[in-house]
């Protein structure tokens, strides 16, 4: 099976490093984007198999990023949103714009791997 490529959009350096490590250990190739501009640049050059995106990021938020992927790129790329708990409005907005899943922070790396695999299987079907 070919290695799946994940674009991880997370501005928290420590969390990004932890998640990248755990996802690579699970067999994924991981590219990290630290803000919304880096996400857009990465999407121009290389389409990942899945986007894991923090809602609160500099330049373009996760909400704006979902909107960009769905409307401007016209792409059905699977998207998992990350956000601090209790930010229900943002989560609902993300789902309305086309996000596929949501995980509240603090993120369990094991849960993230399970959700990524589940989404990848669903999108292959």
- CATH class label: Alpha Beta
Estimated helix fraction = 40-55%
Number of helices: 5
In the CATH hierarchy, what is the superfamily?
Response regulator
Structural class of the helices, strands and pairings? alpha/beta
CATH fold node name: Rossmann fold
Rg: 13 Å
Which spans have pLDDT < 50 for at least 5 consecutive residues?
none
Number of domains: 1
Series of H and E elements: EHEHEHEHEH
Explained architecture:
The structure is a single chain. By secondary structure, the chain is an alpha/beta fold. It has a single domain (5-70, 79-123), classed as Response regulator (Rossmann fold). The model has no long low-confidence stretch (mean pLDDT 92). The protein has helices at residues 13-25, 36-45, 62-72, 88-97, 109-124; strands at 5-9, 29-33, 50-54, 79-84, 101-105. It has a five-stranded parallel beta sheet, with helices on both faces. The longest helix has 16 residues, at 109-124. Helices cover 48% and strands 21% of the residues. Pfam families: Response_reg. InterPro entries: CheY-like_superfamily (IPR011006), Sig_transdc_resp-reg_receiver (IPR001789), WalR-like (IPR039420). The modification 4-aspartylphosphate is found at residue 54. Keywords: DNA-binding, Phosphoprotein, Transcription, Transcription regulation, Two-component regulatory system.
């Amino acid at each position: 099976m070919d290695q799946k490529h994940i674009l991880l959009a997370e501005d928290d350096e420590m969390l990004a490093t932890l998640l990248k490590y755990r996802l690579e250990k699970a067999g994924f190739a991981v590219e990290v984007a630290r803000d919304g501009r880096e996400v857009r640049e990465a999407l121009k050059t290389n389409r990942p198999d899945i986007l894991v995106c923090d809602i609160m990021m500099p330049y373009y938020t996760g909400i704006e990023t979902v909107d960009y992927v769905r409307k401007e790129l016209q792409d059905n790329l699977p998207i998992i949103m990350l956000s601090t708990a209790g930010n229900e409005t943002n989560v609902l907005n993300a789902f309305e714009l086309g996000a596929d899943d949501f995980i509240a922070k603090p993120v369990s790396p094991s849960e993230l791997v399970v959700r990524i695999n589940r989404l990848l299987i669903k999108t292959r079907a």
